[in-house]
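Progress narrative, work stream C.
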Amino acid sequence: MSSTTDTGDRVREFGSAVADGWTRERFGLLGAIGLILMAFGPSFQVYLFTDFLVVALFALGFNLLYGYTGLLSFGHGLFYAGGAYGLAIVLRDLTPVFADVVGSGIAPLVTFVVGGVVGLALVVVVAVPVGWLSVRLEEIYFALITLAFGMIGYSLIIQDPAGLTNGTDGIIVLLGSVDLGGSSFRIGARRTYYALTVAVVAAATYGTWRVVNSPFGTVCKAIRESPDRAAALGIDVRHHRWMTFIISAAIVGIAGVLRAGLASVASPGLTHWSTSAIAVIATVIGGATYFSGPIVGAFIFLYIRWAISRFPTLEAYWELFFGALLIGVVLYFKQGAVGGLLLARDRLLGDDADGGTGEEPTDDSGSDDARTDRGDDS
């Protein structure tokens, strides 16, 4: 009885928060409604939005290392590909085995789940030594060593070790149909895979948010601001950076698993530095100092890219337009699109218009000291 009462109280509190203005709860409710409505949109738009969700999770995992710990990586494509290849290899080699064990009806779903777990485990196994070596360096040297590890992975995949990766051709990912209780559905169908992606990305995003807002996340921010001061407080800087590296790689690995199912292939290009740059670009556009920055940046990146592709003349020079966009963000939106939107909101509604969104920059610029440094007398 008490649990029912607690649930009712939470529902009433949530309803009050939604009615109280543009709060975090209202944004969350509108976002959930938008995700549901998107499932009924045109087939291509469902695919494009699924692609956005995967890239957003990729950038979110990357930003856990960059925006919250201050380490710029150009090798996260290695973990993106690790998740994809883990799933692809299991689907290719073990689907008949699972069909014999659990039956052909549910085997495609079981194989997909096991493949996802294997892909995630593979990423963690790779991230442990790579992270252990990488966090011994800082700034540009850290970026360069992660780039080197990423390109080593790219070369290994092309070499097709033990016949696992199929070289430059990659591995085709075929998601079969599941038969349950007389009904059948195909995992790879656009709307089905969209629903699966929404569930996985929502859970991973919530988990990342909990990490960021935990004592561990606070320590990461302290290390980013001043590693020497953090060490003086007794924090093992190198160990915390290593742990953050592993968690970041795991989140990116989940995105890689989803990428393989969406693209129906695991290819060496996922490991290339240009793929790692997608997360960097999305984070810079959206704003690395905000939790939602990589998500907003991924949306802007993909949908502007799609809009440009609608015009063949612009498509031939799309890098020029994106270069101009990045220059504009760096020059005029130093905290990215999210920071620009919040600044516009403050100017329109007043500096005290918090709205309760809970969207605070990771550099704690909302603190009293930071406001004093900016000359804000409030």
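Work stream C, second folded protein:
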Amino acid sequence: MNSGKVPVNVLKRSVLRQLKNKRTEIADSAGLGADCAVFAPFSKGQMVTCVQEGVVELQCENDLAEAEREDLSVMPMRRIFQKCANNLAAAGAEPVAAELVIFLPETVEEPELKALMEEAEKAATDLNIQIIGGQTRVSSAVRQPIATATGYGILSEAAVTQVSAGKKLAGQDIIITKWIGLEGTADLAARNQEKLLERYPAYLVEEAEAFDRYYSILPEAATAVKSGGCTMHDISEGGVFAALWEMAEGAGVGLTIDMKKLPLRQETVEVCEFCNVNPYELRSGGSLIIASPEGTAVVEALAAEGIPAVIVGRFTDSNERLILNEDEVRYMDRPQRDEIYKNV
């Protein structure tokens, strides 16, 4: 397609017609000749917003060089929506809507754009999010499709109270849901599948690749909000160490973590050892950090919903951020570049 706005007939046929999921919170969506979406009025609660960007995969990639296919910054469209929804859920909000902006290279044809929009709509529908508008543009300056999703969520009045009550982190338990390193393990397993199969049984490699089924943190975030005042942070780029450091730094507190309690799947251990990466600094979408003054009660509530969770430490009123590993004590470093890029 040529640089500039996507032609009107293409916009109607391959973009707007793909958008089917609707929510009662949206009074009117953006569309052809209408640049703004309208939220229905709501008298209680607050609106929450976040932005998630990414270089996205095409369904038809014949024109891409091998190096571009293996670029670990490239992700499926569905993951952009999942990350956006996870950010909203970690803020205590229910994801409701999203705006989507896509920049396309001139080499992209209409069937590929339609496939991207179908994938976006499926991801949004699975998360019960309505795509309410955005932009689609072609540019000669773009090598691969780039997408930005701006997500909108609603924080109920009760959730506002609960989340506000948990803002003072000092003295609160640190809970981690599911297992760290899920996202990075799946990416590394897919990238190194053939080599991994030479060392490990097929079931282990297949299970590692399938960790994307755990990416959503919406169930545990909703359960945590119902269980009392808490602050949450999804674990993504940089891994669990980066997420913990960011939480402590943002609140101006310290922390103490028992490294032996950080939950790891055996598949992650094996894949990370094979790829020579540190699982504690590996992208960990699908895992949530919850700070709560009643950690045991939150863990029990999560367990009742079938969600694994464990208390791994506590936030403190000092400036020290400590990692305990049996008799060894060391200070937590500032966040480093995600370990997955060592495997490029």
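The mean pLDDT is 89. No further action is required on this item.
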